[in-house]
């Protein structure tokens, strides 16, 4: 596997125009315009500069640092949302930069977009939207009244290019440049953009907003120039028939585009190998969040693990499954493993049955039976051909990093520890005492090996306890045990000595037992991936648990899911995490 081929810095075909003064590109959806993570920059400017430096012709003698940086100089004056595609213009020399900056500041750059929407009124073929917009809840913007001091004028000229039923293709001229301007104004007008998760757009393979035109004065010639980029094929396809749903697996071109977008969205993770936060284990495709229903694909170093949810629907057709596996094999990884998860996977007695989880890869070469993949620089032992589970739950990557960064000198209890990935994060973060509890002796043995492999094992500080978590909690409470941090991530369904545990009905009582062991001022990191438990309901469960345990909750903070676990449009992430802090 060559990571630079799977995740190239930049693709030459994205360049629309280039001369000594200007560089214009057509940014694909899924690529950020600015780095959200300074430690792992994945923005288009960083990637483009790396591309420019790599293709710069060799100079006579070794080039100096100033010359090398000059080859990659980019004057930046605009940005697009990560999931908006389209034109971006950069100055290629400092002399041109001043002219470009003045044009943007004085609103002399004409910006044209196209968007696919639902709900645009009939016989309203041309209109000017004039609103005042201001920061709203979370990452959203909101249209506000004239008296709101944070509000700024947003003006967008809208014209209809095509209609198909309730769907319409709109041309947008943005006279102002406010954050999420087109998205928030169209949603406020009752016509949200397709695929817009923040503003209630209809299901679509991506955010259907594209910067299609830029007109400006050329800094070198003073002539008025215009650059254009056609909308990607998804726009016409969605306008014609709406969301493909399961049918995407029968459209090879649409499937390929969806996988390409998924790769671009994970570029920062894919190219992180070699950095201090190297991550080679992460989710590459997250079901409907990547417009690929009932499919999850995880990357483990040089191999992929495809998880098919349900043995009906799109996966009832064996030929369709084989076409998908062929497409995954073409992405450039060494091999592909397959896990088929039936509707009632939680009731399977033997999760290693070959019909659900073949021990060998279904495409390419085999991985070692057990090897260490990296997560934020932390080695985690995984087994790709050993049943439905690999030994690590990738949706906890962000939480494990939080634990590692905040537990120095603390005592930590890890309940339902499984193979102890959280415990390893605590050990590498400098926790003074760690207790890992799980009912499975085999899982704890793998957990001990995990910690030992990373060189983080201290028998005096780390205890591995093979016991039913519910029974252990009762015994620990009677013994007066207290911990600075308790980690609670039970399965959605399980069978214990006490009977059957169902998170939807039983999580509250479990959380109360866990809170009884949290020291004053300590914290409980509570998690669930039960799909029928909403974030709001989960928070209520935890506050009720605090009252039941007679503990006063100072704060309950929702924690964001990992960037690779994109939720489906209009839905919450499957993984819900809340950090509960008790009063001193």
Describe the structure.
This protein is an alpha+beta fold. The chain has three domains: 3-243, Pseudouridine synthase (2-Layer Sandwich); 272-372, 2-Layer Sandwich (Transcription Regulator spoIIAA), CATH 3.30.750; 393-582, Vaccinia Virus protein VP39 (Rossmann fold, 3-Layer(aba) Sandwich), CATH 3.40.50.150.
**What is the domain tally?**
3
Mean pLDDT: 92
CATH superfamily (homologous) name of the largest domain? Pseudouridine synthase
Q: Quick one: how many beta strands? A: 27
What percent of residues are in strands? 25-35%
The assigned CATH architecture of the largest domain is 2-Layer Sandwich
From the N-terminal CA to the C-terminal CA, the straight-line distance is 52 Å
Helix percentage range: 25-40%
**CATH topology heading of the largest domain:** Pseudouridine synthase
Radius of gyration: 26 Å
Count every helix, treating DSSP H or I runs of 4 or more residues as helices: 15
For the biggest sheet, the summary is: 11 strands, mixed
User: CATH class of the largest domain, anyone?
Assistant: Alpha Beta
Uncertain runs: none
Helix/strand/pairing class, anyone? alpha+beta
Overall shape: it is globular
Briefly, what is this?
The protein has 15 helices and 27 strands. With about 575 residues, the chain is an alpha+beta fold. The model has no long low-confidence stretch (mean pLDDT about 90).
Question: Topology, pairings included?
Answer:
Layout: H1 3-6, E1 15-18, E2 22-27, H2 44-55, H3 65-71, E3 75-76, E4 85-91, H4 94-105, E5 110-118, E6 126-135, E7 141-144, E8 152-164, E9 167-174, H5 181-188, E10 209-217, E11 224-228, H6 233-241, H7 252-265, H8 267-270, E12 281-286, E13 295-300, E14 303-309, H9 318-329, E15 335-341, E16 363-364, E17 371-375, E18 378-382, H10 397-406, E19 411-415, H11 421-428, E20 433-438, H12 441-453, E21 462-466, H13 469-478, E22 483-488, E23 493-496, E24 499-502, H14 503-515, E25 518-528, H15 535-548, E26 553-559, E27 576-582
Parallel strand pairs: 4-10, 14-15, 19-20, 19-22, 20-21, 22-25
Antiparallel strand pairs: 1-2, 2-4, 3-4, 5-9, 5-10, 6-7, 6-8, 8-9, 10-11, 12-13, 13-14, 15-16, 17-18, 23-24, 25-27, 26-27
Helix pairs in contact: 10-11, 14-15
